[in-house]
Amino acid sequence: MNIPLSKICYLGNEEEYGIDAIKTRRISGQGVYVQKFEALIAEKTQRKYCLVVSNATLALELALRALDIGFGDEVIVPAFTFASPAASVMAVGAKPVFVDICEDHWTIDPAEVKKAISSKTKAIIPVDLMGHPCDYDQLLALGIPLIEDAAQAHGAAYKGKPTGSFGVASVFSFHANKAISTGEGGCILTDDEQLAKKMRLLVNHGMDPRNRYWHELPGRNYRMTNLSAAIGTAQVENWDQLVNRRKQVGATYTQAFAHKSLTIRKDAAWATPVCWLYTLTSPNSDFLIEYLRSEGIDARSVWYPLPDCPAYRHEKVISYKVTSRLAKEAFWLPTYGDMTREEQDYVISTLLVALENLKVLNDM
Ligand SMILES: *Cc1c(COP(=O)(O)O)cnc(C)c1O
């Protein structure tokens, strides 16, 4: 059996809306689905303004630009995450400052963030990692604007408040491996009317919406197509179900591996996490991944510590000890909304066999 790491799950009107967009020739950046999609996400996350864009990496860049962050400025980012936060900081000419994550729930460590603050610090980009929200009371108390990267955390909550609602600007990704997906895509959320207006300008060439070709700002093109938004609209209509299905997949894995020689994330008491990609850790992760892969299961090791990568090696680092250990030991198991019981049983039984083989090897 071949099991992919992830794939998009359709539960409703994706085909119908997608075909409608194609038939009506509304497949560029304008159309009814763009507006519908934006309204539905804003409602779901309790935010005033939502702008959909072509991906979450550009959404982060857009937020930084709109907040006038650039040359000479510093932005604090986690050392352990997909690279977009650090890359977008550098794309606007500012400097990322890397800090470590918490030992238990793997999100950015507020105590380390505090150490990283300097007179140049203009923002923090906390990442709701693997679907677990950051410790927002602690982060907000630092008094520095947050640009929340909720790319992996659709439907999670911190003390009952949804992820995506904590930043001056917050972003979601709709990449193919995310719980809510348009293949490629992202959005940015805010409650600040001025900021929303400025981002609307920047998204569309800096053009005055009432006066075409009158450029208020040197903007760019970050638009999402109406075709993508059609798929997204259908996805958001089933937001809770799509999120809950992945949660169920996660719960089944946790039950199967709870008493084995594997470690799982320790969720914080204040968190209502979701399951993005199910993550386990083991000092023998290389052996386990290789075994799973040889049996057709697309298990994967997680990201390298960003401060080790050539792209970021010369940037400022406060600490990344937990990151370094986790980067070696953590790995993902296939996780998607329409994973069948049979597929999941195959992953579980294969990993249990791998663990048995490991025991035999270690006892030799
Ligand atoms: C997926 C992801 C992104 C990037 O999203 P794209 O839409 O692919 O650009 C950014 N940050 C995090 C934490 C992600 O997981």
Please count the helical segments.
12
Computed over alpha carbons, the radius of gyration is: 21 Å
Spans where pLDDT lies below 50 across 5 or more residues: none
- First CA to last CA: what distance? 31 Å
Strand content: 5-15%
Q: How would you sum up the global shape?
A: globular
Mean pLDDT: 97
State the secondary-structure class: alpha/beta
How do the SSEs run, as a string of H and E? HHEHEHEHEHEEEEEHHHEEEHEEHEH
Q: Care to count the β-strands?
A: 15
Portion in helices: 25-40%
Kindly describe this structure.
The chain contains twelve helices and 15 strands. The chain has 364 residues and is of the alpha/beta class. The strands form four sheets. It has a four-stranded mixed sheet with strand order 1-9-8-5, with helices on both faces. A hairpin with a 2-residue loop joins β6 and β7. The chain is globular and about 75 Å long. 50% of the residues are buried. Bound molecules: pyridoxal-5'-phosphate. Pyridoxal-5'-phosphate binds at residues 55-57, 81-82, 84, 127, 149, 151-152, 173, 175, 186.
Question: Which keywords apply here?
Answer:
364 residues, alpha/beta, 4-stranded parallel sheet, 12 helices, 15 strands, 14% strand, globular, binds pyridoxal-5'-phosphate
